[in-house]
Every structure is written in structure tokens, then in C-alpha cells.
## 1
Amino acid sequence: MDQQKFLEILNECATSCDNCYNACLEEENVKMMSNCIRLDRECAEICRYLASAISRNSPFIKEIATLCSQICTACANECRQHEHDHCQKCADICMKCSEACNELL
Amino acid sequence: MDQQKFLEILNECATSCDNCYNACLEEENVKMMSNCIRLDRECAEICRYLASAISRNSPFIKEIATLCSQICTACANECRQHEHDHCQKCADICMKCSEACNELL
Amino acid sequence: MDQQKFLEILNECATSCDNCYNACLEEENVKMMSNCIRLDRECAEICRYLASAISRNSPFIKEIATLCSQICTACANECRQHEHDHCQKCADICMKCSEACNELL
Amino acid sequence: MDQQKFLEILNECATSCDNCYNACLEEENVKMMSNCIRLDRECAEICRYLASAISRNSPFIKEIATLCSQICTACANECRQHEHDHCQKCADICMKCSEACNELL
């Protein structure tokens, strides 16, 4: 995968996680979404952190990508358990992003 | 401008600034680039901050966009003074991003 | 106020907001806390952003401090409405931090 | 080590790295400092990232602390090679912070 494509996936995942975070906080049953809210924030932050690390040629890209892949997988697994469209869509993108990280490694 | 297009510009600007930061640090005459290195970092950070704020529906989007527009303009003005391709390209994208922020406001 | 004292307040406020964010997500009635969760995240992020800007001698310290003061006040006002200890404590620290920002300006 | 003490060390290290970054960019011979500038930014960011992760009770504290310890050590090793007071001071704090991360692990 070329670098530009990978950055697009990371940014798409960060956006999707922040969108899901916002939507979860507006759900009727917020309590049920509390772990999803947490993981959405974790995942959005690590994806932007990795996107910046790649763009600035950080010496720690592989280590950050390893962590990013792990957090994306955890977020995908949580989102997958909820029926909301924003969660299912987020789960798909998080899995794609986790796989893109693994491809880099 | 629709939100997805705006997010693409913000992410493109953040990437461009981090690329320019990295390239400046590898130039023969780093001293001449010190202010560009500073502003590239400032600009990359505020663009990602605003992208996240928009995606999570922050109550402070307009205030952050006002600051982002100002930092993008300062970074564009600095980059414009240097002949390196990475600086000229970064200046173009920073100006486009500053204008996109102003359009939102 | 000297710079070190101001940085301590910013870091204390960021920690307090992240603590409150975590505690809100563990409350029985999470729905009632959704706006507090949002503002805690907003406030933690801007406080760390300003702490870094000050430490790296950013050219935009005043503009970031203006925004930080505003977000701290909004977070304090939200936290003040909730009886939980973590919210009341957070409201106190956010107000102190907002005032420290204003003192800088 | 209790959590509050650990957070103080992380924040002290982030501040010290951003101070060193700023001072390096103002040195007469910036080229010689380019790797120090890079690592100061890397280290400041991961320290604030870990401080936030701890404060919000992230499920990934250990993984982030592992990365933080590694980046602190790399930054300490780079800073140690330069005679400037800001570099020597930063090297000391980065080593202390790396050890505090290891103590957590």
C-alpha cells in the first residue's frame, strides 16, 4: 500500500471514530455505549498520532503502528456489538485500518 | 463546502506541514528553516485538532477554525519565502486551508 | 504568575478533566453526564495544547490562551451543575485555570 | 510510585522536551541539533499522550508506557551528546521519565 493511501485510511478511521463518539453521546441509552465512547476516543487519537508520525518521518512509526493496529481492533470489536449504523460503519473502517497497519508491519 | 471536503483539506494541510517539517530538518541550511520548522509543527497540530473538533461536533468549532485560519496563513507566509519545492507546495495548501476555514466562518 | 506555576495549573486541569471524563462514564446515569463527558474531553485537550504551546514558545500563545479560558469556563459551568465530587472538584480547577489564562492575557 | 508523582514526571518531561526543542531552534548551529529537535517533539507528544491515557483510565496504559519509555530513552541518548545546558537537563529528565515508565510496567 502506498503512503498516501495509508494516510487516507488513518484519517478516515479517525473521522469515523469521532463521528461514532458524537453519535453515541446522543443515543437514548448512553450507558450501553460507554465503552464504545471510550474506545472511539482512544482510536481517533492513535490514528491521528500515527498519521502525523508517518508524515514527519518519525523514527517510531513501526512501534506506533503496532499500537494503532491493536487499538483499532479493540474499537472494531466493541463497535461490532452495537446495532447502530454509526457503530457498524465504524467497525468496518477500524478493521480496514487495523489491517492496513499490519500490512505496514 | 461540504464537511467531507473540508476535512480532506485539513488532513492534506496537516500532512503537507509534517512533510515540510521533515524536509526542512534535512536541508543543508537548517538554520534558515528554523521558523518554517516551528510553523509547520504549529500548523499540522491545529489542522488535526480542528479536524477532530469538527468530527466530534465540538461546541467550539468556530473558535478553533478562527485560530486555524490564522496559523495556516502564518505558515503559508513563512513557507512562501523559501524556494524549496516542499515549502512552495506547503504554502499553496496552507492558503487553501486558511480560505476553507474562512468559508466556514 | 510565573510560567511554571501556570503550567502546573494547566496540567492539573487536564488531569482533573480526564479523571472526571472517566468517572462520568462509570456513573449510573451516564445520559445525564453526556455533556460533561464532551466538555471534559474538550477541556483536557486544550489545556495540554496550551501547556505545550507555552513550553515551545509558540507565536500563538495568547490566541490559544483565549480559547483555553473560554473552554475552561464552559467546562466549569457544566461540571458545577452535577453533585458528584469529581464534577465539583473539576469545576473548581477549571475556574482556577480559566482565571490563570485571563491573567496571562 | 503513586499516580500523581508519575503524572508530575511525565508533565515535567514534556515541558523539558518542548523547552529543549525551542532552545535548539535558537542555537547558532541548528543543523547539529536537527535530530534533537525531532526527538524532543516525539518525546513531548508521547509524554502528554501517556499522561492523558493514565488520567482517563485508558485500557492501553501499559502499551503506551512501553512506547513512552522507549522514546524517552532515545531522546535522553540524543540530548546527552550535546553540551548545551537545556540538552543535559532534558537528558536527565528523560531518563527519570523512562525509568518511571519501566517501574509502572
## 2
Amino acid sequence: MPHVILLGTLDTKLEEFRYLYDRLSLAASQSTKTPLKITLIDCGREPATDDRISITHEDLVAQHGDGTALTDLSRGDVIKYMTQCVKRCVSDLVKNENVHGILSAGGSGGSSLASAVMREAAPIGMPKLLVSTVASGDTSPLVGETDITMMYSVVDIAGSNQLLRNILNNAAAAMVGMANAYESLLQEEAQNADRTRMRVGVTMFGVTTPGVDKIRRHLEERHGAEVFVFHATGHGGRAMERLVQDQKLDAVIDLTTTEICDHLMGGNMSAGPERLEAALKAGIPNLISVGATDMVNFGPKVSVPSHYSDRQLLEHNPTVTLMRTTPEEAKKIAHFITNKIKTCAKDPSKVQVWLPKGGVSMIAVPGGPFADSTADEALFQALKDGLKGSGVEIVEDERDINDAGFAVDVAERLVELIRSLEHTTYNVGSV
Amino acid sequence: MPHVILLGTLDTKLEEFRYLYDRLSLAASQSTKTPLKITLIDCGREPATDDRISITHEDLVAQHGDGTALTDLSRGDVIKYMTQCVKRCVSDLVKNENVHGILSAGGSGGSSLASAVMREAAPIGMPKLLVSTVASGDTSPLVGETDITMMYSVVDIAGSNQLLRNILNNAAAAMVGMANAYESLLQEEAQNADRTRMRVGVTMFGVTTPGVDKIRRHLEERHGAEVFVFHATGHGGRAMERLVQDQKLDAVIDLTTTEICDHLMGGNMSAGPERLEAALKAGIPNLISVGATDMVNFGPKVSVPSHYSDRQLLEHNPTVTLMRTTPEEAKKIAHFITNKIKTCAKDPSKVQVWLPKGGVSMIAVPGGPFADSTADEALFQALKDGLKGSGVEIVEDERDINDAGFAVDVAERLVELIRSLEHTTYNVGSV
């Protein structure tokens, strides 16, 4: 039986969530699946009353709060507190019951609560749909690295009108469809539990795309691997590390570590200070390279911080400005990498660092706008110095990061590392 | 029979769209509805070959192109050209056949093509779902004022892996669910074609919310109206005007015209130069006020253009900075409004301009941070001067825009205007 959680801020939107609930039931009645189970959680600032509520506000706070009296909190703090309660509640539901989807609807406040719960209490892959007044704009604070689906409500989510009913009706039906399909997929996966295809994550950027494409095709065609390619936009690095933590990836080719530059230098594609840690801590085969570490990403040129105004800036397009990293910054990047490896690597023999000395990106090759052999040399030397005695192999290669031969060698060395695993069960032979 | 259009850039993503197509069919087989009709359009830069294709690349270009040879165009121009062809093709399908949803998936290029088609060739309300690598970020160029639903792909949409299959599977199932529900909704609507509830659009901003809430409740509770509230974020104004053009609204209370400030002064919530035109041209009952014209919206304070650095700026929060409009700017705003009224009003007797002299926003009342009687007076005087001889009634009211009595009077005057329509069929009596 498919099971959907409905997160409702019922103190202000009871009518709208009653409608969503009833349309979920209606859509489910048109499916061949067994009846839908709906868990409606009352997530508002104050309790509401309705027969449809599965987990009341009182129970939510009593079972998942820390005993703080809501009346002691400011309006903003009540929302934060409720968000924590709902996260714990949904985490428990996901852990202890089969859950096949989470649905909510709200303005900016409700979207913030619901998306935090969806991001942190549910796995990637489980359907998550949020109807929101703020979905036509910057959704990254809401979606982050996850697969939350955002439906713009067009009108305010208040009262009832033809358009709002139409949109909420679409949302309810989408959720029923997804929950049914997700339940079926989980059953399919359980039946195919003797999985033998290795799952490899690879990080990519526009300027490393030819190399990554070659790696992907080589691993797929020659070794029957499943390759997951992540755009190194900040979200991509985080998503890959999250999947490693969830044991959804068996090995990693972290070819494009440019997010480290943005973290250190204040660019807009940082994946945070924990980048690189997940795969190192997991001890899975892990090839790290320095793709696109020649650049820090900013938005429109006017948005580049003023202390960088005298730097080499490349306007990629009106909304993307790239800054060439300096030798000093290259050393910081190298230090970040070597420090993570030395402090986090569970098994250094599974880690390799690859240095494409012919150029770390498509535009850092000789003659390219970001060609800078001094910065590159500083990067490579600092990496070599920093990894002395670490037990991690460094592979120096004269080719550039997009060279097809380099890509094949990277892929083959990863396969070797995987084959060297004790009790390997992956089919990594030629296919 | 539900009918879904699948927009596929098949030259680069044939495998992925074959999977989507097959999962659409599978999801449909688990529904109680009659079989799903899928129209797969080959939208890539070059033709692809597959049995599933309904409208081939050749047919698309032959029937919807202007005769230009694709080989004469640059790579970028091919995409623009194909976008135009697909728009015309989908417009024809929507006009001549029943269509219940549009689905696509792509990277930044594919998302741009598919979203342009969804925005411009399909009505608001029809399910539109786009799986995209760029959905966790600024979606406004893609979604605009429409209800396009964005699903972040987490991984690159290339090849096949567990996660990508999971996400595409969710998307296909969501689309089948929505298409079924939308078909049912259209049938319900057709049966209820003797609609008598008037549909009123109202524009709102945070600083006019109390007034709009009061108007909405009054119209709903006293007059049985369906009230559509639009956030004046740029998208909201455009959405309201689009619904007026589509004859989905019978009357408008354009209480919050702040988007005009952003259009004229370069703020980030402009609804474009055609704001106000749709309702005036339609000749429907139309009450215009000047809500939140005390402010121009910008992002973080550092993003305010330097030529405004000496102006009165209010940091609403870290991502929103408001600039108080000056008397000179107030005159420009008034000129924009009076000019639109004089050039576009089909029936001036249906238009009224309301001046809340006690304050045009929550923060422009006496003692508020944006209180400025000189600017307000300049605005009101320029409106009165500009509308002399126009036949449009101006209502001067000493109360502020959020005053409950003001809200009720605005609502009642709209109802009077509606009642004065010849052959009115709306039930606007007390309920």
C-alpha cells in the first residue's frame, strides 16, 4: 500500500490541506494500486482540528519536542522549533514504516519548513513535491542537493479559486502517481538485490565535460558500470557525497574538485567545508583530480567582490564570471585536499591523486585564457609535498584533463582499484 | 483518453527519452483510465530515429519552420529556430486536440527550449513538468509566471544509473497522474459550465497583505466570489494579466502596483512595460490603487546599483533591500498609470483609481520608515492631473491601504461595478 506524508501548516491553511487530502484520495481511487495511506501531520504554529489529521500538533510536540513550551518562543523561533519536531517525526516514519512520498504546499514560511524536512528526513529518490509561492525564483535554499520537485502556485495559496484548485489537484495527482511508481521501483530493486554492476560517481563541469563523457562511456561500455555524473555546482558535490554516505555509490572519480576553490575564495558554487570527506571516510576506491581548480565562479561581473576587482576575470556569459586562481590560492586548494586526505582517508591505498599537467580545464591548456603554468606548478608541487608519507599514490600525467587517453587511463585505474577489493562482487570485466 | 506531449532532444538523449516514454506507458497501465496517448516530438538539433517518435524532426521543420535550412544556422541559432518550430507545433496540438500535459527533461539547453514551449504554447493549469539539471537555482527564467513544475535531476541526464532511472520514473508517473487528473478536471468544469461565481484577481505584497486579506475574505464571504491573489513579484502581475487575457478573470482589484516602480527604476520585481494593459484592454471592472509604490525592490544591499547609494534604503532582510521612491519618481509612476489608462482603457466607466491618502503601504503610514507626505502628494496630484477628462473616477480616501474599512469599500465598489454590467450573470448578492 503506497504511503504519502502530507505536511500541513493547518493553523493558517486548513481548507487548502483538506482539499489536497481529498484530492489525494480521489487520485488514488483511480489507480489500480491498493488504497493510499495518508499521514497528515499538523505542522503549524498552533494546533488545528480536523478528522483527517493523523499526527496532531499536540502529539507531534509531545513526542518529538524537547519539552520547550511553545508559548515561551518568539514567532520565528516557533517555526524553527516545529521544523525540528517535524524532521524527527518524519525521520522516524521513514525509518519504521514504508513511506513513498512527501507532499506539502506553502508560502515562503511553509516552504522553508517543508523543504527542510524533505531535504533532511527523506532519502534522495523518494518523491518529494512542494507547491510553493516562491518556486519561480532562486530555489537553491529550498531544493539544495536533493530531488525536491517544486510546483509554482502562480496564485497565493489562500482560499479557493479555480486556478488554485487546478494546481493543487495536479499536485495531489502527481504525488499519487509518484508514490505508486516509487513503491513499484522499491519492489523491483528488492527482487534485483543480486546487483553486480558497480556504481561510480564522477564530478563534472562545463570545462571538464569531454573528459567526463569519455570516462562515462568507457566505464559503461567496457565495464558495464553505472555512472552517476554530478555537475560541480555546489549541489552536485554535496549530492555525490550524500549518496556515498547512503552507500549508493561504490567508487568515485572526483575529477572536478572546483567547488573547493569556491569554498576557499568565496565563489558561488561552494559545496561547503566537508567536501571530499565522504568518499575518504567510506574507504571506497577514490580517484581525486584537480579539474577546474583554475577557476572561482561568480555571477554577473558586477557581483564579483571588490577585493577581486584587479584579478583576471573572464565573463563566460552575462550571468557567469570566472576568476583565475593564483599560485597562492593554488597552494590553499592543495592544502585543503591533502589535509582532507590525511585526516579522513580510511584506507589510503584506495585513494589516488591524478595531476593532469597539460591543463586542469578546457581553458587552462597552453594558449587558453586561463593558462598559467606558475599557478599549475604551485598546485601540483603543494599536492606532492602535502601527501609525502601519506601512502596515497600520486599519478603525474603530461596530458590535460580532457584528453581521451587520460580519461581512459583514469577509468582503467579505478577499475583496477575496484578489482583489488577483497570479496569484490562487481562484474567489472569487459562487456 | 489522456494525452501527453513528450518534448525530446533526441539527438543527444535518445536513450533517456526512450526510458521516459516507456515509463509513461507503464505508469498509465496502472491507472483505471483508458490508454495514454503519447506524442513524442523530436526536438533536437539533428534528426533521430526511433519507432516511438510521433512527430519526426523532418516533419516538425517542414510543417512549422519558415524554410530556413538548418545547415545555414549557427549552433545557437539552430536551438532558437527549433524552439520556434516546437512552439508552433505544440500550439497547434493544444488548439486542435485535447492535450493534458507536457513532459521534458534536459540540461541547461534542453531546459531552455522545453520551458519556452511550456510557457508560451500551453495554458496555465495544464500540467507541465521539466526534469532539469538546473532546477536547484534561479528558476525564474524558466518558470516565469507559469505553473511549470521543476524536478531537479541531481545527476546529469546522461546514460543510465539507478538514481537517474528513479528520478525519471518519478517524473513519468507524476505526469501520468497529473494528465489523468487534468482530464477529469476539464470534464468536471464542462459539466459546471453554468458558473455564476465571479472571479476576481487581486494584487498583493507583504506590505499590503492585511488589506488584501480583508478584501479577499469580504468578497468570498459576502459575495461568494472566487478570489485569486497574486504576489506582486513581477511574476504575479504577469500571471494576473495573462489570466485576464485568457478570460479566466472577470474583474480586477489591482491594489498593489509596485511592479511599475521596479520597471521604471530598475528594481528586480518588474512585470515589464505592459503592466496594467490587459485588464484595461479587456474592459472588465478594474479598481487600480497604488499599493507599495513607495518602494523599489532590490536584492542584498550590495546589489543596489551605485547610482542609488545615497538614497533611503531599508534592509528588509539579508536578501531584500527596499528603496523609498522620491517625488520625482512618484510623478513617473503616476504618468505610467495615467498613460496606460488613457491609451488602453476600453471602457473608462469600468475603471476607478483609488488613492489611500493615509499611506500606500504598511511602512509608509505616518511614523513608518517610508512615510513621506511630499512623495505621496506628488503621486496623488500627478494621478489626478493626468486623468483629467479621462472619464475615469478617482476616489480619494483618507485611510491607509491596509485599513479594514478601506478594504471593504474597495470590495463593495467593485461589486457595484460588476452589478452594473449589462447582462451580468454573476451571483454577487450576499451569501
